[in-house]
Structures are given as C-alpha cells and as structure tokens.
Amino acid sequence: MAKKIFEIDLTKKMHEQKHPGHNRWHPDIPAAFSVEPGEVFKMECLDWTDGQISNNDDPSDIEKVNLKRVHVLSGPVHVNGVEPGDLLVVDILDIGTFSAHEWGFNGIFAKENGGSFLVDHYPKAAKSIWDFEGIYATSRHVPNVKFAGIIHPGLMGVAPSQEMLDEWNRREKALVDTNPNRVPALAELPDPDSCVLGTLKGADFDRVAKEGARTVPPRENGGNCDIKNLSKGSRVYFPVFVDGAKLSVGDLHFSQGDGEITFCGGIEIPGWIELKVNVIKGGMEKYKIKKNPAFQPGPVMPHYNEYLVFEGISVNEFSGDQLYLDANTAYRNACLNAIEFLKTCGYTGEQAYMLLGSAPVQGNIGGIVDIPNACCTLSLPKEIFTNNIIPKLDE
Amino acid sequence: MAKKIFEIDLTKKMHEQKHPGHNRWHPDIPAAFSVEPGEVFKMECLDWTDGQISNNDDPSDIEKVNLKRVHVLSGPVHVNGVEPGDLLVVDILDIGTFSAHEWGFNGIFAKENGGSFLVDHYPKAAKSIWDFEGIYATSRHVPNVKFAGIIHPGLMGVAPSQEMLDEWNRREKALVDTNPNRVPALAELPDPDSCVLGTLKGADFDRVAKEGARTVPPRENGGNCDIKNLSKGSRVYFPVFVDGAKLSVGDLHFSQGDGEITFCGGIEIPGWIELKVNVIKGGMEKYKIKKNPAFQPGPVMPHYNEYLVFEGISVNEFSGDQLYLDANTAYRNACLNAIEFLKTCGYTGEQAYMLLGSAPVQGNIGGIVDIPNACCTLSLPKEIFTNNIIPKLDE
Amino acid sequence: MAKKIFEIDLTKKMHEQKHPGHNRWHPDIPAAFSVEPGEVFKMECLDWTDGQISNNDDPSDIEKVNLKRVHVLSGPVHVNGVEPGDLLVVDILDIGTFSAHEWGFNGIFAKENGGSFLVDHYPKAAKSIWDFEGIYATSRHVPNVKFAGIIHPGLMGVAPSQEMLDEWNRREKALVDTNPNRVPALAELPDPDSCVLGTLKGADFDRVAKEGARTVPPRENGGNCDIKNLSKGSRVYFPVFVDGAKLSVGDLHFSQGDGEITFCGGIEIPGWIELKVNVIKGGMEKYKIKKNPAFQPGPVMPHYNEYLVFEGISVNEFSGDQLYLDANTAYRNACLNAIEFLKTCGYTGEQAYMLLGSAPVQGNIGGIVDIPNACCTLSLPKEIFTNNIIPKLDE
Amino acid sequence: MAKKIFEIDLTKKMHEQKHPGHNRWHPDIPAAFSVEPGEVFKMECLDWTDGQISNNDDPSDIEKVNLKRVHVLSGPVHVNGVEPGDLLVVDILDIGTFSAHEWGFNGIFAKENGGSFLVDHYPKAAKSIWDFEGIYATSRHVPNVKFAGIIHPGLMGVAPSQEMLDEWNRREKALVDTNPNRVPALAELPDPDSCVLGTLKGADFDRVAKEGARTVPPRENGGNCDIKNLSKGSRVYFPVFVDGAKLSVGDLHFSQGDGEITFCGGIEIPGWIELKVNVIKGGMEKYKIKKNPAFQPGPVMPHYNEYLVFEGISVNEFSGDQLYLDANTAYRNACLNAIEFLKTCGYTGEQAYMLLGSAPVQGNIGGIVDIPNACCTLSLPKEIFTNNIIPKLDE
C-alpha cells in the first residue's frame, strides 16, 4: 500500500498546492488527510516564507519579506481515534532535502521588518546562502566553515482547542497593548492578510482568518520551537487538544544554532519529513505532559569534541545597567562576545552573526540563581572551521 | 621541587587556615603566593559555605545558613609578569575530592534566606546528601539515580580593578534600590559581616570589607559562573585587570545541573584542584576576550546518549501573562514540566527539584527570537536513572 | 547542470542495466563515464548478489545463492587527470535506500556454499529480513532490537594495475593450492562463470573474465573492506594504480557489525551513494599511503553510551589447543561468548549470530602481544535492545 | 570504618611490601585480606616490572629487563561467600596515579628479550617516558602529542582452579614444544625464578612456584587482557573458579593503544585502584558468562570526533604470501601503514611505534569473512596531535 503523502510542487505557492496547507493555528482548519496510529506517512514542505527568498547575493528579499505569510505549514493530519487528553507520539523517522533544491538561506531581518536577537547591533537586513553537498553545508557568504547539518523541523505542532486559542489571543494582545507601536513588535496578533487556511472557503475562511493565531511563537501545542536537536530519529510526545490531534509541520532547517538568533533563521529549506504516529490514551494526565510537548532526541546528530565557549552575564551592554537574572541578556552578551572573537578570525560582524544562527552552536543556561547575574554560554564547535581558531599561547 | 599548595585543614574555618583565603572580591586582598607562567600548583578548597552544612537528614542548617559567609575561596594566586590587558590562561589539570570527605550536599534555600529558582513553588528549605563511590554519586534522599560526576569549580576568577569594582557596586546598588525590601533580595551588596580577607588586618581590612564585592554573581572577572562543563581538562582564558591577575577558586561541585537551580547548589564539596597557568601578552585586545572569560571544555566528561527533553515557554505559570522572549521564565517552565513528569516516576517535588540541581541535566536556549515566546529546554539523561523512565506506548 | 548518475533499474539484473557495471577487478573494464576533480556524482547500486535474495521467511535462496555472481558493482568512474602515484580523495557525501525498497537481508551462508565466521558452529543457511522506518531497522526474524543504521558501502575500490592483478592471482592461487578441496574454500580464484564486465565484449570479455580477480576480499585497492564506519560524511584516500583511477562501488549495507561475521553479510541493500572526488598529485609517496586506502570517518554515526563487552582468547574452542596470538580465534571466541549470553535473553543461536552480523557491534583488538593469547572484544550496545539485557546483581 | 587497603611502598620491591603480592597464578596463593560483598576497598599497585624501569633517556633497562619478574600483582582478595559457579561483579570505582610518581614508561622490547608486535621491523629496545599533568600525558621522547589518559588496569583476574591451571600448563607447553627455541618464545611456561607468591613459604612456596602459571597472557580468569576501555566506572563480571574468587590486580596503564603493540606496553605506572565487589550466585550458568569475563565500560573515557584510519590486510609484508583471514597480520599491516604515514609527519619509526602503543588508538576488526583477506583498521584520533596531521588536498 502506498504511503500517504502531503505533496508539494516547488514551483507553486502554498495556496496553489494540491494540499493547500496553512499558516495560522485554528481548530477549524480541515485536515488534509487522516492516518491510523502506527501508520508511516510523508509530509513535503515549502520553506517557511513560501518561497520568497532567492539564491543570490542580494538581501533585499530578506529586507522586504512579507512576514504575514509565514510559516506555511504542511497539514493538518488527523490521527484516527486520538482525543483530547491523549498524548500523540510522533516519530521523526527521517528528513531530507529535495534533490532539485540543494541550498538554503539564513538572514538577518531588518529592524523595521521583523528584527532579530541582536537587532540593536545589526539593524540592517543581510543574507547568506548555504550550499549542500550531501550531509555538509558551506556558504560563499561565510567562508572557511563546513559542517554536517542537524536537519530538523523548526515547527511542528497540533491544533489548539478554541479555548486555548482564545487564551493565546488574549495574553498576546495584552502584551502588545503595553507598547503597541514598538519596532520590532512585541508579538504578532491575528491578521487575515496573507492567510492560507487549507481548503477553507467563504465565511469559514473569514472567521478563521480573523481568529487564527500566528505561527511565530512556540506555545503549548509545540509550534515554532526551533529546537535544533529535534532531529531525525526523535520521538515527540504532544499533548492533544482536539479530536484527531491535527498535526502540522514546516519550517525545515538544514541546520540551526541554539536560539536561531538571526530570526531568518536557521538554514531555511523546503524538504520532506517522514513521520509515524502512535498514541498514549490518557497520557497527558498519566505522564503529566500537559503544558508543552516533551521529546527524546534521535541518535544520529553529529557529535563534536572540541568547543570554544563564550560566557555572557545579565548586564545591559549599552547602559551598563544591572538586570536581575535575565537569561535573554546573558545569552545576548555571550553571542556578542563570540562575534567579537570571530572578528579576530577574519569574519565581519554580519558573517559571524549569521554563522551563529546557522551552525550547530550550543546555547546553555550556566547559572540562573546567582543574583543578580544570570550566566549563559555559547559553545562554538572548533571542528566546523577549516582553520584552527583556538587562541595561541605565547611561546 | 615540591608544588606550591594552598593547603586546607577540613577541621578549621577559612579564617583559621594556614592560608586564610577570602570571600569578597577586591584588588587589595593580598596574594597567598606567586607562581610563574608554566607552573603547576594545587589549590585545596573548603566547601562554599565554610563548613556550615552537615551530613544528616535535617535541613535546618540549610534553612539558617549564614549567607554572608559565602563563598570562601582559595587564593588569590599572583602570576608573575601578568599585567592588565593580558589573557591569563588557566588549565584545570585535575580536580578531586578528599578521601576523608566522600560526600556532598545539595539544598533548596528557604525563601526568607536565599531563595532559589523555583522559590514561589518550593519556598521551604530542603537538603539532600550525596555519597560518592569513586566517580559515581548516589543519594539516600533521592533514590534510584546514580551518575558520574562532572566535577568542576563553580567559582573561579581574577581580581577586579578598583574601577571595575566601583562599577559593580554602583550597578548592583541601583538594582537593589528599585526594590530594597524584596525577599529574596535582588542582589547582595558589600557587607563587612562575616568577611574573610586573607591576611588583611586593621584599617585595610575594614576598608576592603566595606568595599569588597560579594562573590555570589558571575561577572566580568569570571566568578561564580556555575558552568557544569568547566571541568577537568578545561582551559580558561581570563581577561586580566590587575597586576599578577590574582586568581582565586572555590565552590567545588561534584556535579551540577545547568542553572544550579536549587541555589545550594550543585553537589557542594570541599576538595582540591590542580592548575597550570600561562599567559597571552596583550591577549584581551588580540582575541577580543575582554568582557568575560572564554574557555575550552575538557575531554573526559560523561557523554549520554538518550535524553528526555522538556520544553518551556515564557508565559507566567501563575498569572498566565505573556512575557516577551523571557528565557528565565521559559527555563523555569521547562524545569517545572520536568518536575511534574518526575512526580509520575515516584519522586516528591522536592526530590525532583534537587535532582535537577544535582545531576548533569542540560539547559538549552531553543528559540530566542520567536516573538513573544522564548523556548528553553531541560534535557534529562535517561542513563542516570536505575529504572526506565521513558513513557510507554499503548500496545 | 545535471549530475552524472550511474542509474539502476531495480527490476533488472546488472548486465541488463543501462550501465552494466561489473563483478570482477581488472584494469581493462571500461569506465561508465568520466568526471572532473571537484565534481559531485551519484552511483545507484544493486545489492551485492544481483537481486538473488527475496523478502520472505525461506532461507533457501541464501543456501543456493550463486556466489560467482558477486559483488555486482557500479562503475568504474574515470577521474580525469588522475594518474598512478596520486591519491584519489573520495568524499562520501551521502548514502540512502530506494523508497521502493525499504528492507534488507542478512544471512548465514551454508558451509557448502560460502560458509561464515562461525561455520563449524552454524553450518546451515539462515536468513533475516530487516525492515526500515527512516533511520531505524527492525526485523521480524530477530525480535526486540531496533537501531539506527550506519549505512555504508561494504565495497569501494579503484582498479588494479595489470601487475598488481597478476600478483593477486599468484598469491591467492598459492594459498588455494595448499588445500584445494577445502570446504569452504580458502579463496575464490578468477572464474568466467557469471561474469559481468561492463560493456566489454568478445575476446576482450573472454580475456578479462579469465583474469579478473574476484571481488570478495579487501586488497590494496580498497575493495571489499566491510568497514562499518566508512559511512556518510567520510573522506577516503585511495592509492591510484591506473590512469583515471577507475573507481567502483557497491555492496551497500544499511548496517553491519564489525567483522560482518555471518558473511551474508551486514544488512544488504540496493541503494544510492553520492560522491565527490579530488586528487592529491603524487600523494602516494608524499603521505606514504601506498599499500591500502586510509580514511576519515564521517561525523553522523550513532554514538552509544552503554556497552556489554565480551572477551575472547586464542584457544581453539573445540580442541582446547593453544594458538599463538591468533586474533581470528580470539574474536571468534568473543562472538561465541556473546551468542551464549544472548541465548539467555531469549534468542536462538542463529538469531543472536545474525544480530551480531547486522547491528553496530564493535570488534576490537585488546592485547595482541601477551603471548600466547591474543585478546579480542565484542562490544554490544545496550541501547539497541528494547529490553534491558544487563545482568542483575543479587539483591 | 576505615577502608581495607593493599598498601604499597614505592621504595620497596613487591616481596618486601607489607602485603607481598604475587606474580604467578595459582589457587593456593593465600589471600592478603577478605572483604564482604558490597564492600569498597583500595588496592595500591607497583608497576608491572616491579620498578625495573627508570625515568631517563637510556633504554638499556628495557633491553635487559627481567621478564621472569612480571607482573607483580596486588592481592589476592578473598570475597566472603563467593563460590565456584558464581559471578564476581567488580566495580572499578576510580583509578589514579601516586602524586609522588607523575610519570610512566612505554618501551619496545628487544627481540632477544620479549620482542613485540612488530619485532621483525623494530627488533631493538627503545623507551619513551611520559609525563603527567593531571589528566594529560606528554612525552619528551614523542613530541607534539598530548592526550587525556584512559587509565585502566592492564591485568585483573581471579584465581584458577587447580584443574584449570593444569589445563593452562598443558596447552601452553604443547605450543612451546612445537618450536622450543623460537626467539621470541611462543609462550612463557612456569618458572620458579623470580617468583613472588604472597606469604607462602617453604615447601608450599616451592610447589606453587613450580606450577604457577605466568601472568603474561589473558585467560579464562581474565588476567592480562590489556583492554584499554576497561577503565574507571567499569563493571566486570568474572566467572569464579575457587572459593572466595581471589581477585588480584596490577599492570596499571595511564593510557594504551588497542593491541598494546610495543609490549612494554601502554604507559606503565604504579598507582591505586578503588574497587567494590558484588556477587551473582550461580551467575556463570544463569548468564552463560563461563569462559571469560564480560564487562560494561565506564562513562568517562575521552571521546574523539575525528580519526584518520589505516587499513591492513592479511598478506605477509615480507614474503607477499597470502594468509587466510589472519587478523593478526591484518592488524600488523594497519599498524605499519600508520607508522609509514606518521614518518611523513616528522616522527621516527620508533617514535611512531611507541605512540601507537601509548595513545588511545583504536584497533578494529573490519571484515573477517572476505576470503582470503581479513581487514583490520587502526584509528588515530586527530585531536591528540598538536599539529594538524590530515593530508591536504591540492588547491
């Protein structure tokens, strides 16, 4: 029996596909097809921007990207017999690129259109194209690095219930209301512009477009977690909020650094992912996996042996103000410290920044209790550099 | 030639030792001895509380610990020929416990005296004692786990310059002033009570005691970074701020989870550390390692193959309020999710909490740009459990 | 520009393919196509037996396999500008299965037709079919194991010079002549029966068929090394003996244990391999890589953390005779010890034997100087078993 | 309660120690002390030659070493309640060097006195001294390498029964009798010269000295396995042949390459080892661990990421004769190939040879069925070299 496949034609936009996919979260987006527990199936995916970025040296497509279009997702898939309260167990059996598309992109969003983690240091748009030779990536825009990708879906999630969706919209609106004109915005609220909602039409489309949550953040349903180690061979336990769970997936990355700090993003690709689903009836309560998914990573990620690790603490790098156990600031300083070091190796700041977004760098919480400073670390694998970057002792 | 050794008598307090050590940061604390670049020497260390915690089942010593006494450090060591602007390169050649002291402690500080990362969930003091058999730790207070320690110094640093010290005191006081009566406090300011300042006496003692920065946070000089992977075999690059660098070390941990979330802390031990120092003249500018230390981890940490990973996002767990890319909250939720799961394996919440503080769990930044939610993960190595904790699929 | 591809039609035998391939080593087998240094190309491969084994429960196809037909190889590929004395550098960029063929086979050859490493213990033919779900393999014939494949080409090599070929034939005939009627045979000599020799025809075919070396053993040109870690991401340095090097590849394995002890073999599959070639002019002398290839393994092999290791020494297991530093006997005893143990876990001897041939078990030389006993080890990764196989202490 | 310790005074020979130890295997050598199952105890050990080798640049002590003196072992330890048929479970809790002895030696034995794996290539004695700084070893005799030791006991074993001992002596004599004048010898038979037999005296001493098996080879009781990964944190399952098991240990190595190919040996040291014993009653039959020990390696060995791997096949390197699946010859050729390569990196043959004996190189069985050639590999970790040894592509 042939596998069920969510097919993608790379020459078409998501709403023109045989299966149109979606780019908002809503319980009423119809399933593309249904599967049985134990069934293996394949999802083909467009890149998260719906093909807005080109393989060239000009970052203007990054600068002007339509962010209302993201993320175009494949699905939803209805899993027969799965109900709210269950755990949906999803095995990521394999992931790959299309042989007709052996490249991906990383970019820094402009402050005015998206921004990024180091937006106040790097407010302008930039782009790097990464070429793949089998398991390896290199870039003409970031020289002297080569690494094996930890290919993964940046985004995988199940549908929220209507109650959960309402709560998302409430809490995010409350945040935006604290500073509605901020650039970049504090959050992206529902917006019918550029919606893709599967096969929905007419009044249903309009209603769902108006209510549907944006796919940008990770939430209780999984969503855009951007966890670089959620790679092939992983098993994910999703709490289930609607009948059939309604699983969707997209935003594939050939590779990503912890934090996905340039926002656009890891090495972004279209591609395919092979999945198998199972169920644990009543599993949310049984295992208390209720607020967010949990997962077991797969066994075939590249392992590195030698790292150069940069530390950062929670003191604002412009004002010198002391913040209280602020891990965001601590990690930002660790990233900035790494970038300053990489400049001494011959990289521009933008190149170093895009490298940290693309390569399998690790971001860790060091200490989070040592008042008032959080300590975070950024670990750079030495082996990804074709030159030796380690500082040399005086002879 | 015999190695230089900072000797410790486990039956005495830090101020009674042959080398009295110190528990504040100040450029004027006299060096215990000096070494040449290339020299190997040994530092013996008391536990960070100066021996206040006993090997028993009663947490009242944790509850009433005198936190003005921490951290009692060994040093400083003056490195000949090292000047401000250089990088001091410190090799951690080996670390070990004392054969007369084959146990350590982990504890949750009470909200009124220190607090911890999950203080609003676990406001009461608790204690777990961990026993060592060679490289392994087990605890009568946290059953069914056994793991190899990643033994490391929670705290290692060089002396600040007077200007740097003044800036620390300024910025930390400004933070405290925003909420001076908060419990737990936002930061610990200089306090002459319970000071140990090496061989300083009289007016010099009084001045340094009044100005000396507390050792609690990590700062530009390294300090209390609590990085679990800064273990044996590591090489650290410290920016240098005073002549001779004045290296100090203490707060040894037999093991620690990322974040050291119970605050008290990892598995706290007295012990010894063997160090070798080298120098890179003018290295701060040459390699732009100026704001914080950088390091290469050692090669002999235990590697784990199978993890169960919990995710957390930046939504306040009590109010449901949406926070903006708040990695602290996201990691707190990941920890809480792990604890809820561990309760289904038979642990109490306090046991699970202390396990996350003690065992080599990994805390990672997942996505830090996906507005408005940061995503952090807590990775629990399956191999440390003597039972299989992985959720089971329905048959 | 489209990649060059050695295409395979799974419904046809090797001699019927568009590119007919070959199953003997000879310098005069014509190249299928030529590539430039730096070029990436793809080789599709049939399984080593040319499709003689079926996905069913009956081992009679293993028992009666035509071994004169093996190994059907894809190639040769001529690399422009490469000459004898150079090193041909081959990057294994990626390897995969065909989506129409998601299974492989392992088998024990019968003593009368091939034999195997433990032939005197397991003289009868047996077969296990392994099914793939993405990166994982399981078998209905060997229950309770699941592991990620380390997919690799069992056989990759360059063409020998005529002189080298003559020497191979000389030395192997001399060995066979010491016991020409042995069952199983000591070596397989040239045999025109069942030859496939690319596009060769007529007298050239007859001459080459008569002289061409069998592909069974590894030799100076690489060949059938059956090294399980020569997997995706690896870089191989081949000494070059003829103009253009004439690279061939085949005998893909989804997985294999060290030693490939059942002979048939690892988990045998048809599939594809993506390669890139480079050259080091005069590299054989420059790096003294002259007698055999050398290689760097790739970074994405599954890593295991917990092993159960069996030892074996060089005492004959039937006679009790003491052999002198005989690593073959020592490894055989380590394998037998592992099988005896696995029987206590519920496996039959044949199942255990096929598991050791298929799963990523490690075979190591322990001591090879401690007269008179060699010590070899067989390391079984605990993680591949769905049950816990580790012996339990008395309570 | 104080731990039981087998104490060693480094200034004395084994027969002069408080616990005299032994250097032959015999069931009647009296136990030094007894322990209970579950008990932790410490064994201090002399180096295997009983202190015959000095820290200097002159290999004449290696050349003239008295091999009748080896290996001086610590023990035996009697484990209460353990009987033949049980499994003795030994945890290697930790291992270390003496702070007064931070160096070790590796040597090539002369052909006339011991020989080595490559004796026909390197017949003369050589010596390298390795200095330790914490977990790392370097050598003034083998420059530009630095690596973390995988410290382990080369030799650990239980006493044979009288029947087993008789069988050892029978089978080894039969081997020697095939070529009694061979240099080096095929095996070492019982020899009263230089015997150390614990506290035995008089007629008992004479009898045991005459019958006691040499400690050179690994055998059914464990013994001199020289397995580099049997390191700290390991758990060993020994079959038991006499009441109390009578466990002995010695021949500590700071590090060793697979095969211990120079014979003298790994990096040989005196030191200490902390052990814990448990029992599985009737475990030999229950788990079929009857012919040799099995073990689980510990979790803190250094992991390497990048290897350069050399292959070898079973063709005699002098005569060109084809051997039949001869793994000894295949591994010898892999070693020789590695040495030829290392000469291009600036090492002498002797230096390269001693490096392969000392550093954590891996020796693996590749294919052991591909008639007539066995294929073995020698994997050299790139990270142990302070220079980059990887061959460079033509630009």
UniProtKB/TrEMBL annotation, chains A, B, C, D:
Keywords: Hydrolase. It comes from the Bacteria. Pfam families: FmdA_AmdA. GO terms for molecular function: formamidase activity. Its EC number is 3.5.1.49. It is an enzyme of class 3 (hydrolase). The keyword Hydrolase applies. InterPro entries: FmdA_AmdA, FormamaseFmdA. PANTHER family: FORMAMIDASE C869.04-RELATED. NCBIfam families: FormamaseFmdA (NF045496). This is Formamidase. It comes from Macrococcoides canis. The lineage of its organism: Bacteria, Bacillati, Bacillota, Bacilli, Bacillales. The gene is fmdA.
